[in-house]
Amino acid sequence: MAREKTALITGVTGQDGSYLSELLLSKGYRVFGVQRRASLPNTARVDHLYENTENSRFSMLYGDLSDSSNLSRILATVRPDEIYNLGAQSHVGVSFDTPEYTANVNALGPLRLLEIIRHLDFPVRYYQASSSEMFGKVLETPQKETTPFNPQSPYAASKVFAFNVTKLYRTGYDLFASNGILFNHESPRRGLNFVTRKITLGLARVKLGLQPSLHLGNLDAKRDWGASQDYVEAIWRILQHNQPDDFVIATGENHTVRAFAEEAARHLGMDIEWKGSGVNETGVDRKSGKTVIEVDARYFRPNEVDTLLGDSSKARKLLGWKPKITFKKLAELMVAEDLTYAEREAELHSRIVYQPKAAGYGQNIPQRKTRRNKN
């Protein structure tokens, strides 16, 4: 009988961490997830993995990529066969506001892990989550493993460091350390401040009257969008390969933000017509005549990355991987989930704003009067 493998996942509470946990558990792994301590719960994406409490193969540990002693203790305790480093400050826009923190977690975090790994007395396979943002102002199209990096944000620059240090420890210390250069990948579990979720949830809210319109930045930015559910399969296959290497993971087709908004709107019964130009451009629903999308200059980046398009032929050939969920299906899945999400918001809103129609109620709740101190 084969020995049960143990995996350690940093960033387990994120989109990819949750899907990867599900995949590994389905393959019989014992999974340990690392989460940062927070005052408010941030484990919604993995809470369902705790259901089987009597024989659970999923556990959570507190840790932080900025704390070497903590990471060392975790690795010595868990003794994982595989480490998936997905933890990061992962928002490009936020990295301009928090560049030092972004570099500390995204660049020095992997360095800390690799330095600990090289001193372990047991073998470990290490996966580093790299990003298509490293290509930045692209120097060739499509982008593949040999394409030079040209980062345009603190986030991208920090990921370039992590990519290179992973290669350095692979060649210098003979570690099984691999990079997965994943192009944009989305899902209903994507963070709310990422443009795809912003679009699907924002338009669902507009449809239900919860917000007047959706505000977006650069509508013409083009991205190679895939599905997180597909991409975590590639992540796992990278560490099952017979030797450590670097792989681009992408669909091989790209679409504009504008096109994603149109596709999402279509699944909500809207037909977008674009009017105006530049920061004055708006998206109007032909059916209702209502402006549902507005361009907002606040959401433009200091350095724009205009287009990203990946060539994953190496991964398809050596790993036997290919994406299954199409661009249109991805938008459909995300809209369906976010419409349900928005409907719950609308129901909650109605309960707060209106009293039940009983005992003379049914009107807006009156403002509570403040009791004055008579003293």
Distance between the termini: 80 Å
CATH topology of one domain, by name, is Rossmann fold
- Radius of gyration over alpha carbons? 23 Å
Helix and strand content put the structural class at alpha/beta
CATH class of one domain: Alpha Beta
Name the CATH homologous superfamily of one domain.
NAD(P)-binding Rossmann-like Domain
Q: Kindly report the spatial arrangement of strands forming the biggest sheet.
A: 3-2-1-4-5-6-11
Number of helices: 11
Indicate the percent of residues in helices: 25-40%
CATH architecture of one domain: 3-Layer(aba) Sandwich
Uncertain regions spanning at least 5 consecutive residues: 357-375
* Sequence of secondary-structure elements: EHEEHEHHHEHEEHEEEHEEHEEEHH
Any descriptors?
Rossmann fold, alpha/beta, about 375 residues, 11 helices, single chain
Note the topology.
Elements: E1 6-10, H1 15-26, E2 30-35, E3 58-62, H2 68-78, E4 82-85, H3 92-97, H4 99-106, H5 108-117, E5 125-131, H6 154-173, E6 176-182, E7 185-186, H7 195-207, E8 214-216, E9 222-223, E10 226-227, H8 228-240, E11 246-249, E12 255-256, H9 257-266, E13 272-275, E14 282-285, E15 291-295, H10 313-318, H11 327-353
Parallel strand pairs: 1-2, 1-4, 2-3, 4-5, 5-6, 6-11, 7-10, 8-15
Antiparallel strand pairs: 9-12, 13-14, 14-15
Helix pairs in contact: 1-8, 2-5, 4-6, 5-6, 7-9, 7-11
Q: How would you portray this structure in words?
A:
With 375 residues, the protein is of the alpha/beta class. The chain is built from eleven helices and 15 strands. It has helices at residues 15-26, 68-78, 92-97, 99-106, 108-117, 154-173, 195-207, 228-240, 257-266, 313-318, 327-353; strands at residues 6-10, 30-35, 58-62, 82-85, 125-131, 176-182, 185-186, 214-216, 222-223, 226-227, 246-249, 255-256, 272-275, 282-285, 291-295. The strands form four sheets. A seven-stranded parallel beta sheet has the order 3-2-1-4-5-6-11, sandwiched between helices. Strands 8-15-14-13 form a four-stranded mixed beta sheet. Strands 7-10 form a two-stranded parallel sheet. The longest helix has 27 residues, at 327-353. The chain is globular. Residues 357-375 have low confidence and may be disordered.
